[in-house]
Amino acid sequence: MTIDWDKRAKVYEELKRIVMENNLTIWIATQAPPSGLGNRRFFIPFSEPELLIIDYPDIMSPSKKEK
Questions:
Q1: Quick check: pTM over 0.90?
Q2: Alpha carbons 23 and 21: distance in angstroms, whole number
Q3: Which of 13, 26, 48, 64 could form a disulfide with 60 if both were Cys (CB 3.0 to 4.6 A apart)?
Q4: Domain-wise residue ranges, the chain
């Protein structure tokens, strides 16, 4: 499968806009967080092997949040 880098960049920019407008948390990690935190997460692979994890602020503890 070929990656469409232009399309991926557009999706990332739109995602960033949504995150900023809605004051969501961005957590960049090399692996997914533990299961059992509910279904309110979105895992969007954007840079191997990292995942962009967008979460509602009340799910992550303050120590896990990016400023």
A1: no
A2: 6
A3: 64
A4: 5-64
Cβ proximity of 44 and 15 under 8 Å: yes
Structure tokens at 47: 């840079």
| Angle in degrees, CA 7, 57, 46, rounded to 5 | 20
Contact present, 19 and 54 (Cβ < 8 Å) = yes
Q: Can you give the pLDDT at residue 9?
A: 76
Q: Which residues pair with 28 in a beta bridge?
A: 52
The DSSP secondary-structure symbol of 59 reads T
Reported as a single tens digit per residue, the pLDDT across 13-41 is: 787 788 778 776 665 554 555 555 544 44
